[in-house]
Amino acid sequence: MNVGIRMWIEENGEVVFGDGRALILRKAIEEGSLQGAARALGMSYRALWGKIKAMERRTGIAFVEASRGRKGGVTLTPEGLSFLERYETMRVKLQERAEELLRAYFPEGIVMPSQEKPAGELGMRAREDIPESGSP
What we know:
- The chain has 136 residues and is mostly helical.
- The protein contains five helices and four strands, in the order ββαααββαα.
- Strand 3 and strand 4 form a beta hairpin.
- Helix 1 packs across helix 2 and helix 2 packs across helix 3.
- The longest helix is centred in the last third of the chain and has 28 residues.
- 12% of the residues are buried.
- The C terminus is likely disordered.
């Protein structure tokens, strides 16, 4: 049994950074270009570039810079790479803690309802508790 977690950092209701943006930066490193990262992720270049610019605006960090010696290539800035690595470390620790909590709260695992009663019968019981429309 595992816990699935989606994580993001936000400020004033706006996403600053999250799993999707971390993936964009990892793909940019892997592909060596934003165009390659966009293609690999099935995104338009414009959408990918917009997410990077939003990250930079919200954090005050320049995440990417043009690669020296490679036309159209990009690398992460030292500050961008540091930010990404800290986020990924935090993400791993959060996942580990969630797994610990899962084992603490569900040491025997998740027990499914008895298979003796048909699923439809369980659904009907739940509906009995719902008042008819117009009833108080």
